Each structure stands twice: as C-alpha cells, then as structure tokens.
Protein 1
Amino acid sequence: MTDLPMTLDPGARQLPAMGGFNRTVLGIELRRMLRNRRTVVLTLIVPAALLLSIGSQRGWEETVGEGNVAAYLLVSMALYGAALTAAATGTMVAMERAVGWSRQLRLTPLNPVAYILMKALVALFMGALAIAVVNVVGVSQGKAQMPTHVWVLSAVVTLFCTLTFAALGVFVGYLVPGENTMQILGPGLALLSFLGGVFIPLSQYADVVRNIAYWTPMYGVAEVARAPLTHDLPWYAVVNAVCWFVLFVAGAAWRMSKDTARA
C-alpha cells in the first residue's frame, strides 16, 4: 500500500517575530520616501520658503505667550510642513496598490498592525525632518524668540500631532488612485491650514468663518502644537484634535480591511 503524502500543518508554520516588523523593510520605506523629489520639494522646501516670506513682514516682534509672532509663525509652518510630509508618506499606499505591492504583501506573513506601525514610523521620521528644516531656517533668520525648552517642547508636540495626517494620508491612499492622492491632499491641506488658523490667526476672520474653522482638522492640532508657546489651549481644541485623529485612524483601518478582504 502506497503511503499517502504528508500534509503540512498550518499551525506548525513559524510566524516572523513582531508580526514581520523589521529594520530592512523600514529602511526601504525611508529610502523610497527620500528619493521622491516631489515629496522633498513640496514638504521640506515650501514650508521653509513660506516661513521666510511670511516672517519678513512687520509685527513679527510682538509678544505672544513666551515668545513673539515670529516664533508663533515658526511653529505653525513646522506643523504645516510636517503634516504635508506625513500625509505624503501615508498616501504611498495608493502607489503600492497601483503597482500590486499591497497584493504581494497580503501573501506574506506580515501583520497589518506591523505594516501600519512601519508607515507611522516613516511618517514620524519624515515629519521630524520637515520640522527640523523649518526650525533651522527660523534660527538662521534670527527673528523667532522663545525659551529653549519651549522650542524643544513645541517641536516634539508638533511631531506627534502629525500622526493625524499620516492616518489621513493612508485613508485617502485607499480611496483615491495613486496618481491623484497628493493632487487632492496638497491643495486640501493648504485650504485647511488657512481655515484652521495655521497661516492666519482666527481672530482676523469673520465670526461665521471662525465658527466653521473650529470644526476643521487643522484647528485642533494647530492649537495643541502652539500650546507650549501660547499657554492657551481651549478644551474644545483638544476634543477637535482627538476626534479627527480617531476618525482618520478608523477610516484608514476600515479601508485597509476592505482592501485586505479582496480576493
């Protein structure tokens, strides 16, 4: 009697440690982002140029919290640059889907949580790079004045605020075709920044526009990022920041689960 062939026991298969999270894939993700010239120009050069142009206007020496208007603008431009960078990092999933890379990943033991964690770390790294560039330009400009501990704390808080826009980038990346993601997010984030008080203080807006701004994604994170400088953080700004973060993460997880479930 011929012996039947042995069947593989799925339970005996060894899964990679930490769900497949590893430094090699993380390094590939980082290099891919740094090689993207459009991302580098849009997210690292534009915010610094805006800081130079806006910061050259009159009134920058007026006091704001523990610093001056120039410092207020510096934190705002750092947030804008980091938000753009984090969103661009998140939208890379659209390109991965377009070339079939995400489908290949579904055939590997890579855990979706590990995949998202690597995306988040890349977004944090790129956001930190954008914040560093804006701060270096601000220091060289010599107009921003605030204590060193406020400078450092503002940069750290701004960096973690950008996770909101990394989640937004992933969400949009699963909704929109790869070639159109940043064409939508770039102008969209610029509009949200104007409306959310990143470029222009809300006190200069009409009451109707200001009341709308309180509900936008940029308003809450901008107030949180500038809180170490201004010492003014309304409770509804914190609620705004938390709610939009949860909403974007939930949307990204939902669209990712839909994409993963496809045959």
Note: The chain is about 70% helix and 0% strand.
Protein 2
Amino acid sequence: MNELITKQLLFNFFEGQTTFMQRKLIEQWLEDSANEETYYRCLDEWERGRPQVLVDPEKAQQEYDRFLAGGALPEKRSEEMFLGNKRLPVFHRSWIALLTAASLIFGLASLFRDDLMYKTFESPTGHFTSFFLCDSTEVTLNSNSVLKVPRFGFGKEVRQVWLEGEAEFKVTHQKDNLRFQVLMGYGYRIEVLGTEFNAFSRARGKRVFLEKGKVKLNLPKGQEVYLSPGNYFTADAKGSFQVITPDEPLAITAWKEQTFYFEDVTLTEVVEQINERFAAHIKIADRELAARKIGGIYQAKDPDALLQILSAMFEMDIIRHDEEIELRSPKNPDL
C-alpha cells in the first residue's frame, strides 16, 4: 500500500472524516486498478466492524448483478447519507458511486465476497475452452472444469489461480520474474516462472505433466518436488505420489483433441475418465467386467459415442436408469 494511503486513512474516508486533499489523494490512488483489491478488503473490514449499517438484501442483489454485468451504477441524488444517527457527506464522483454499491454488496458479507473478488471460468460438459489471463498466460480448460482468478488482476507479489478439474497452461514470463501459482486444493500448489504444463485436480488425485520449462510442486506435508520437461507427477487421493517419464505423453494431453487414449488400462479407469470429462454417472456392476483392459485411441464428443464402442468390444449391456448408467456383463441365457 502507498505510504500515504493507510488503512486508517481509508477508514476515515469511509466515515466522511477526510479533508479535500486526502479525498483527492485517495481518488488518484484508485486510478491504479492494482489498488482496488486493497480498497475493497479495507471496505469489507470497515463494514464488518459496524453492524449498525442497514442493508436491503433485495436491493443489494440487484446492484450486485448490475455491477458484475458491467452496467451503469445509479448516482446518488442526495447530498447526504446516514450511518446510524450520523450524517456523512456524499461526493458526486464515479468511484463514490462504486463505493455506495460496494457498501451494499459487502453488507451481505461472505455471500457475495468470493463472486466479487474472483472471476470464474467454466468449461461446459463435452467441450473445452481456451482464453487468456490478464498477464497473457494462455489457458485451455478441459470439459467439466473450473478456474478461478482474481477479478481485479494479479497483485505485485504473485500471480495466483485456483483449479478444479484439468487445464493446460502456457505461462507468460514477466520481466520482474513474478511467480505464477496454481492452487489445486488439499495443500497442492504448482509454482512456475514461465513454462507449459498440464494440471489435473479432481477427487481421485492430482497430476502434473510438464511440457516445457521447470516447475516446483508444493505438497500437503511440506514436501517439494521439482519437475523437468517430460516429467509426469501423479498423486492419489491418499497422498501417495510418484514422478515418471511416460513413453507416450499423448495419453495425458489427448483431451485437447476431444480424444481418449487408453494404453492397457482397466474398464474402471475408462469409466472414471468418462465420468470426469462429461460429468456422467456411470458405474460397473461386476468386478470381472471392471478388471478387463483396453487399449487404443478413440474420439468421442459425448459419453454415448464411447459407450457404444465399449459395448461392442466387451459385449456388455448398457442399462440406463433415471440418474445413472450401469454397465453389466450379459446374462448367459443357457443358465
């Protein structure tokens, strides 16, 4: 924070106890978008310490929706507003209108805070999405995956995003060597400077495949693992991990071509991949069928396309229920 812009100064500003020069200083400070997150955090703290601020939840929701949609914020017509029994001056500037809307929003505390501070990218089921972050880092998000990024841009110490699902990152190196971190939950964190890698973060484990550059992985128990190009890190749900160099990386990155690459894997593994990519609910009814193995490259844009191939290969029945699909070995009619 600027040495002249302190938390106490912002608190005084929220209470209407700043001079004209102090208000001008804060206005100039807010012209730098990098200061917006600090500003809103202080506003949140100030609001939470003053429960006498009354908020109309329905109106706050309307203002919040308009704000996220990029719509114009309503201007205040009155020269004054009230905090309890205290009159506070209201200044007719665009960022003061933003302050008014933000006050309503933060009055709802945790209900809206994450949505306001972070932007969420989601990839629809059966498709992947590519986009650029504000630092020019390119992200390709796999089907049924979510990436959360700071809404007002990265800070000056670290570029940090949150991944649930699978994505490929092409991280842009910056002159100041600002670190780029991918948080994957449960204590897993990828830290890079400039590189290309594939990250997988789902309930059954964490995986990282490094294509170019170098990354450091921070693990739940304080361990650190460094990867070189071609290294493939995998960890199961219990935290056991290994680092290998796969002979065929296509099995890891085939999703970018809407393709499945199976190399002598069980039907259980196949079903897990289908469920993850398409948000499907498929289960295998018997152990013998689940243990059967498959290999090959298959292109499928929806689960039905792949299930029909599997049905022909394994001569299995596909039984559809209301909320799930069951795979079962056919009954022997002679028994």
Note: The longest strand covers residues 158-170.
Protein 3
Amino acid sequence: MENLRLNVSLLRRRVPNLTTAAKSVGLRPATVSNLCTGKIPVGRSEVRTLVALASLAECSLDELIIRGENVEMIETKIKALDLFAPLAKGGTIGLVARQKMGQLVLLSELFFRLKKESFTTILLMPEGDYPELKDVTINTDIIVHSIEEAYEKIAEKGSISEIVFAADRRHVLTGEIFELQERIEAINIASITTFLVDLTGEAADEDLPYGPLETIWQFDADLTARHKFPAVNPIYSTSSVLEGAHLDQTHLTIQQRAQKLLRRYRELRSLVNAGGMERIPASEIQTFKRGERLEAYLTQPFYVAEAYTGKKGESVRLHETLQDVRKILDGSADSLAIEELNYIGQLIEK
C-alpha cells in the first residue's frame, strides 16, 4: 500500500479547475493538494475521497492510482529544497509566494544550475511589463511569447535534451498549460519539468492555486522578513518524490526529524518573541537552539546573487546535506555560533 500515488498528470488533463471541482463534491482542496504531492499517502486516504476524485476525472480507481512507479528526483544541490521538497523530474512544480519573497531569484538560480547539467531552459513570457523577470531571462536558453511557440520549441529541443519550462499562473487559469502538457505527452520527448510561478502573489491566498502538482514550494513570510533565503517553508513544502517506496530511508528519516525539530522551534520562537528566552522551559532550550542552528544552516548563497550579496554561490550534494543535518540534530554543531552557520555551503566543524 505504500507504493501508491495519484495519477497527477491525468487529473491535470481531466479536471483543470480542481479547486472548484473539489469543493463541489465536498472535498477540501488542501486535502487534494496533499494527496497529489504525497504529503498524504494514497494508502492512508479515505476511500470516499479517492472515489470522488475518480468521479471528477471520469476514470476508474485503477486509472487514478498508479502502482509500482517512483518519481525521480532532480538534485538541485540547494539544501532546503533537496531535503524537504525535492524537485520531481518530469513533474509540475508550483512556487507559492507573495511578491518580493524571492521566488524569481530561486527560479533564476534553478535555471542557472540546471543549464550546467545540460537541461534546456525555456521561459514563456507573460503579457505585460515585468522587469523583475530580467534575471530569469539571463539564465534562459529560449524565450517564447505564446503557448504555440512554447510547444514548437519543446517539441524541437525535447528530442535531444531534457527541458525545464517556466510559465506564469495566468496560463494555468486559462487552461492553456494543461492543453500544452496534454499535447506534449503525445510526442516523444526526453523529459519536461514545468515550473509555475505567480507574479501577482494571489496564489498565496488559494488552497489549490495551480491544480495538481508533483512538488509545491510554499514561501514563508517570516523567513523572508528575517532574510533567511531561500525562504521556502520546511513544513508546508512537499513533493511526491518523498512518497516513493524506494526513497532512501535515511533521507526520509532525517527529513522527518528535521521537520519535527523546526516545527517545535517555530512554536518556541513565538514564545521568545513575546517574552524572551525565560519563557522557554529549561527542558526545551536545547530544542530551541538546535532549531535555530538548523534554520541558519538551511540558508544558502546563490550563484545568481553573488554580485548583490558579495558571497560566493554554494552547492551541496544531497548526501552532504543529510550528513550535516544529522550532525545538527544530534548536537555535533551545538558549539557553533549562529553566524558560523548562516549562508554557508557544507558544514565545517571546528
């Protein structure tokens, strides 16, 4: 039962406006979103929920539920992403953020990194003037201005290289992205991984802003305000990669331990903000300090921001991230100052 996942691609094609459709049959959009990304395992979901989704997609349960298939991960070497919400290769990734929370910097950084890994990067420019996209275009191989042009370029380049494609949410609302994905599935291309962004910030107020997703990166206002970048929420961001039955158990165990620590740290931090460290029980001080160190470690200098930050970009392999996070969880970094963990690459112990 653990090696089951929803056929997200089918849901995207059959039920473009999944938020409204889910509500119409009594389903919570958040529940549907969590099923799509794997945050709620299919094997633990209610049968009525699966039946309702199958009814919406006009398919059988056998078509809705995929057995024995794992979602492959693209290792970004960005610590917070690879640990908490890995990039699903060939999937659709939604960036949920308000304006000026760093989503476009992250997208630009991903394009920069994936180009180095021989991916072809394609950006569908939105209508209107968006100067904030300038940094993304610098790291884009091909810029297109319509869905039809996007299809032509993906069909042309997709036969010889893997594609990463980015588009604005407007194309989701019109249904054009789903039509494009359906057309792409009918042709023989290596792989296309789709990033969806929202330049207006409206997606942050919706339960299912992009429809079914394989990976969702939820940006965090508190991290942004404290300049902890990438400001991706480690609790609410998730990926169907984590649902795979053959995922490295070490990764899953460390990810769950890290989430548990950060969840409690955030609760304790609200107490500290209200009344200082004396508000924390003595038994929780160690938890607070380790959470503080883990949060600092998960910040990372980006290559595309070197000119602005003065810090050299850093890449950290997943196995190195897991080793470092385990050390922090187990107390090996307790003697390190927070300043020694902020915006570093791999952990270097004294």
Note: The mean pLDDT is 91.
Protein 4
Amino acid sequence: MGIGDLIRLLGDGNTHSGQELGDTLGVSRTAVWKQLKKLEAMDLPLEAVKGRGYRLIESLDSLEGSRIVSQLAADPRRRLHRLFIEDVLDSTNTFLRDRFRQGAGHAEVCLAESQTAGRGRRGKSWSTSWGRSLIFSLGWRFEGGVVALEGLSLAVGVALAELLEREGAEVALKWPNDVLLRVDGEWRKLAGILLEVTGDVEGPCEVVIGIGLNVGLSENGRLAAGQPAAALTDVLTPPPSRNALAAGLIESLLTLLPAFERTGFPAWQQAWNARHAYAGRHVRVHQGRQEYEAEAQGVDSSGNLLVALDGETRALTGGEISIRPS
C-alpha cells in the first residue's frame, strides 16, 4: 500500500473506517493507522469521527490519466506521445529531462500530485503539498535551434491565461513568466512557468515546459510562497477539476508548439501585451546587482520587455532580471 492509494480513497471527503480502508487496500488496520499519521505532516488535515472512522477535512480531486485523455480533441490526442501521472517526484521537469536523455521525451507530459524539489525562476524553489496544485511538464523537440525559442515562455503564458479566463478567472501576465490572479482588487501570483532548454544554438534542441498552478492553497502554502499568492479556490466555487485543467493545458500547448515553430512569438505578442499586469506603470527593475525604477511598456516581437528610463527605451531580456511594481 502506498500513501497515494490511501489519499485517493479518502479524497472523496467521506468518512471511512479503519477496517474498510484496510480491506480495500489489503493491509491491516495497524498499517492503515501508521499511514494516516503521516497525513498531517503532508499538510492534509485529517478528522477522526468517533465510532465511524476518518475523513480528510478537504476533499481532493485526484489526477486520472483516463479522464484527462478522454477530454482531448482528436488532433492533440494524436500528438500526445505519452502521459505520466506520478504520486511524488522531486520535479516533473527533471523527470522529462531524464526522458530526453534516454532518447524519449518529445510530446510527453508528466503530472505529479506533489513535488519536493521543484524549481522556479532564478533558482527559487517551488514545492507543493499533495493534490492542491497542477504540477505539469511537457517536453518538445524543436528543429530550429535555441534562437527560435525567443518569447516561448510568454506564448505559454498566453495559452495558460486564455484557459483560465475560459474558466471565469480574471488574470494578468507578469513578465517574463508569472500568471497573476485578481483577488479582492489586487494581483497575486497564481502560476509560474519555467522553461529548461538543452541543445544547439542553431540545431535541434529539447525544451521542457514546466508549469505550477495553484488550484487550492493552504495557509501553510501561502506562508511558504514568500509573496502574495493566490489559488483558483479564492475566486471560483467550485474550482475547475484538475483533470479538466490538465486536459485543457495539454490541448492548448500541443496546438501552440507546432504553430510557434512556424511563426515564432509575434503571433502571441499582441495577446500578451493585452494582459500585461504593469503596462504604463512604474516598476522596480532588479538586474544582477543593479536596481532602478523605470516605466514598463509592452513586450517586443522577441519577448523582451521594453521600459522607459531617462527618456530612452531599454529592452530587457530574460535571465537574472525581475520586476516589481514600484
């Protein structure tokens, strides 16, 4: 019996006796009890109902491959080579990078219920508690080289924003790879995008697109975020199914990536600028050891952020740059 099997049984929000859980899982009640004791440490509060059994205080929407694939349109389903759903990984991006090293990886998707060593931009960690986030990575092999990937993370941001808008969320994009959600009149971080690229500047290269999206967020998770954080449960009741979100994201990206290879970022430039969280606002730019204030403008056809400073326009590329509202 894995801990994931137990969580999936309890995830319906109903009360289950220790005997029922043991019989279903084929283990003793003592073995069930030992596993139940681990749930609090996993940020999954458990309620013991005297004489009846145990229930998770919050029901969980477990990931199911068959439910995800069944929601895909025919063309994206044909393009999807393989779908992995794991209980716990250090990082879904690392999982797919290893797949590429093994000669696979192209058009493969990996989802995890929890990850322990996920990475955000600039080396920041992105660890998540079980079942509350959509932890998603997709691998794609490009023939045009690294130079052809300019602006790809921004195009992915547009695709994710469009998906969330269809669900009824009001979102904005923060350069270069964050999605913000409006909660109580202010923008808070909802999702992050991390691209990891290996290969040649001009030859074939492999890209792993990692996305972390907060569907739900516990108080511990908000404290760990280190910045104002949001989840879809803050504004949508009930929130969309994680399986439906995963299917929508797979469909969007498997449509986007072949088109991006043909056209590059300009086809998404206008859509990104229309959702620019800080357009026309003064921002603090952190660039290496430098820090200065500038006025944020739009992004150019390569995905660089244009800012006005001392009467001149500067183009900021990715890398070790971050911006905050002034």
Note: The chain has three domains: 3-56, 65-274, 282-325.
